[in-house]
Amino acid sequence: MDRPFDIVLFGASGFTGSLTASYLAGTSARWALAGRDKAKLEALGHDVPILVADASDPSWLATQARVVVSTVGPYIRYGEPLVRACASAGTHYLDLTGEPEFVDRMYVRYDAIARRTGAKIVHAAGFDSIPYDLGVLFTVLQLPEGVPLKVSGFLRGNGRASGGTFHSMVAIMSRLRQAMEAGTQRRSAEIPPAGRKVSSWPGGIRYVGGWALPMPTIDPLIVGHSARLLDRYGPDFTYRQHFATKTLPAALAISLGTASLVTLAQIPPTRSWLLNRLHPGDGPTAEQRAKSWFKVTFLGEGGGERVITEVAGGDPGYGETAKMLGESALCLAYDDLPARAGCLTTAAAMGEPLITRLHNAGITFSVRT
After folding, report:
1. Which domain holds residue 111?
2. From CA 59, how far away is CA 357, in angstroms rounded?
3. Which of 15, 199, 248, 313 could form a disulfide with 283 if both were Cys (CB 3.0 to 4.6 A apart)?
């Protein structure tokens, strides 16, 4: 497409956005920064064009680039106008959302439009949900074709949430009823794959040399969408996702903490109290990020074969998320990809080319022997 830029990064003055801008600055891409505060964008110190736009009316940004990347959340509050603009203009779109309600509503409203214009609308292109989505694809590719497949994922790691991520988490927890409604609407609109079954949910409590807990995040939803889009996942595909911890007390503390957050997020006064604990723009220091890491181990079974794979990297929420988002943007802008369009996943939109990019950038995909 004959447009001024290959990539426009919208919301770069935020914590994760600024890290993504620094990552893109180390590439040869034709890119620009975009946001509502020109002074904040200039303060980042990158010698690239700056486009001034507001989240409520960013439609003209979609005509400026081949790929528009958004780090402006919570997406359920700020994200829809840019998705609508990109879907209508045939512009590829990326974001970092971990909000199931937003993903489901965008699918219902804009999948058909994006398929018609050729736009790839790709959500959850950061730690939510690339390690799981691409990790499952990588695991599936090690197993036989045309047979029922079962994959389980187990996350270990550490890291601290930024203010923006924390606000998005609280927004998700406070809108459980709306999320259920959006999921029902999507299931009514989505055409299931012919002759194939897909089941993708958080896992149950398991003991596998340590405690594996249900992981009720957006990731199983994303993996399930990939499996419905890609025949390579076989005629009957099952995915379960867990968070792994070594001791029972740690498992109980995580479960109690999660339940407490969900409860507090339902009540306006306590929700406000939660939101005041961290503010957008706050985040872990460089020293804290340097000590952070993640590993996701996958157990895949099918056709009488069994394989264990691993996706691993450094600081999960920020350093590696900026890398994941940046490489996803470069992949959409420059790589030879399937002609598939619509509301997609990283596995369905980019798949193996993105796995290769990320592996070369230091996020490892490996088969354990």
Report:
1. 5-127+321-353
2. 30
3. 15
Q: Which helix (H) or strand (E) holds 155?
A: strand 149-158
User: Are 104 and 191 found together in one domain?
Assistant: no
Whether residues 43 and 192 fall in one domain: no
Q: How far apart are CA 173 and CA 87, in angstroms?
A: 28
Angle at CA of residue 334, ends 53 and 353, nearest 5°: 120
**SS3 track for 70-125:** ECCCCHHHHCHHHHHHHHHHCCEEEECCCCHHHHHHHHHHHHHHHHHHCCEEECCC
Give the burial string for 347-362 (b: 16+ CB within 10 Å, else e): bbbbbebbbebbeeee
Q: State the Cα–Cα distance between residues 296 and 281, nearest whole angstrom.
A: 28
Are 211 and 247 in contact, with CB atoms under 8 Å apart?
Answer: yes
The answer to whether 358 and 324 are in contact (CB under 8 A) is: yes
Cα–Cα dist 308/261, whole Å: 33
pLDDT in tens, 20-35: 999 999 999 999 999 9
359 in any annotated domain = no
* Number of independent structural domains in the chain: 2
| Side-chain-facing half-sphere of 24: CA atoms under 13 Å | 33
pLDDT for 66-122, tens place per residue? Answer: 999 999 988 999 999 999 999 999 999 999 999 999 999 999 999 999 999 999 999
Task: Say if 17 falls within a structural domain.
Answer: yes
